[in-house]
Write a structure and sequence with these properties.
0% strand, 427 residues, mainly alpha
Length: 427
């Protein structure tokens, strides 16, 4: 499948611009990075029960929310900053913020764990701040290399991260038969990825001086719109994504939560990886002064067409044969996940098409528009979640309400992105 997507990408996006070769490198890395965890999932889902797998999914939910705060979004400025000196100072600033966030968070978290009455069910919390710290460092180094257009290094780091944590998870879960080992594997894989990126970043890292903290103040002020506008926007988006998971866990129990989590981690995790990979290249291209606005708009349109083609290629089998696919791959106990996937595939289509190009609003400094949409998105998802609790919705009723709301909101989001891109091309 990976080779097929590579060949397809080369045919669809033949162009004189290096943009598409960069997209191809990043997308290949994304597909491979998603492929390794997916390959071990059929084994993991047979070694762990549905509820145990749900514990791992719960860790990922908390991790994803906290990771938004890791660098206060200054790691994005590393990629988009206009000046090389600024990118170095922003790299230093991002790493410093990440360090302090981890240990300001770690102390109260440790106290909570020590006094918790359910220590055994929350022992993975020990790893949470460390995983957030490593993820912030990894994201900063990835954006640093993306800025320098070292997309092969970035793609390789994604593959190394996925391969290492997948292998470690598989071995540890096979030995200990506990979801905690999934967390340990993720921690080790992220650390290995950082060491790989550091190997190719040593010349830049040597320029970083953490003691000269006075240099942080100018860049913090110059790029303050990232913590002011981008951080709340991404936070609202992340909460809106994970609110349904917490609701399902609360209303329908750990078994349904585990089933839903498998769909979430197979379909929607791929959206996140593709979005980060493609958006990094696209933002780098917008920041490139040599590329004209008309050229960027044309690249934008081709990218959307490509994403639509790929998502329908992936979605059709799930729509028609979801239960058979999931029960065959992950085991008969996961047939319910396939039934959910048949319904949730429509969310997958709109997210996969629109999320990778959503960084257009960041690159064009339209943070307020993005923040307003994210606020409306979070409010809508929270509203249907509240209605589900008050009216005691059946699972199927909640899922259909959730899907309709998501599809409508993402279509509106896509329109806003296209409108701003069109204005940009004509200005």
């Amino acid at each position: 499948m990976v080779l097929l997507l590579n060949e397809l990408l080369m045919k669809l996006l033949t162009s004189k611009y290096s943009f598409f070769s960069s997209i191809r490198s990043m997308f290949t890395g994304t597909v491979l990075a998603q492929l390794f965890p997916f390959l071990i999932l059929p084994i993991i889902t047979r070694m762990l029960g549905v509820e145990e797998y749900g514990s791992w999914a719960l860790f990922l939910s908390y991790f994803s929310i906290l990771a938004v705060f890791a660098t206060c979004r200054y790691e994005i400025a590393v990629l988009t900053s206009k000046f090389e000196n600024d990118s170095i100072e922003l790299t230093s600033l991002s790493l410093a913020i990440c360090f302090f966030f981890c240990f300001l968070f770690l102390l109260p978290l440790t106290l909570i764990i020590l006094f918790s009455l359910e220590f055994d069910s929350h022992n993975w919390l020990y790893f949470l701040p460390f995983c957030v710290f490593l993820w912030g460092v990894n994201s900063t180094l990835v954006n640093l290399h993306s800025r320098k257009q070292n997309f092969n290094i970035v793609a390789s780091s994604k593959v190394i991260h996925a391969l290492s944590f997948s292998c470690i998870q598989l071995i540890l879960v096979w030995i200990f038969k506990t979801p905690l080992m999934m967390v340990v594997g993720f921690f080790c894989g992220t650390l290995i990825s950082i060491l790989f990126l550091y190997r190719y970043s040593d010349t830049v890292i040597k320029l970083i001086n953490f003691r000269n903290y006075e240099k942080y103040i100018p860049v913090m002020r110059l790029y303050s719109f990232y913590p002011k506008y981008n951080l709340p926007s991404v936070m609202m988006d992340t909460l809106a994504v994970y609110v349904p998971l917490f609701l399902i866990s609360f209303l329908y129990g750990p078994n349904v939560f585990g089933q839903f989590s498998l769909v979430f981690n197979t379909l929607f995790a791929f959206v996140g990886l593709a979005s980060r990979s493609i958006s990094q290249v696209f933002m780098s291209e917008i920041s490139n002064e040599k590329t004209t606005r008309i050229e960027i708009y044309n690249l934008f349109k081709k990218l959307v067409y490509f994403l639509l083609f790929i998502v329908f290629f992936v979605s059709l089998p799930i729509w028609f044969h979801g239960p058979v696919i999931y029960s065959s791959i992950f085991g008969e106990s996961w047939r319910e996940s396939g039934e959910m996937a048949q319904i949730l595939v429509f969310i997958f289509i709109v997210r996969f098409t629109i999320s990778p190009v959503s960084t257009v609003l960041q690159a064009l400094d339209k943070h307020k528009i993005a923040a307003l949409w994210q606020g409306a998105y979070l409010a809508s998802i929270s509203a249907i979640s509240f209605l589900a609790i008050v009216n005691n919705f059946e699972l199927i009723d909640f899922l259909y309400t959730y899907i309709i709301t998501e599809v409508i909101l993402y279509i509106v989001y896509g329109y806003l992105i296209w409108k701003e891109m069109l204005i940009y091309s004509k200005s």
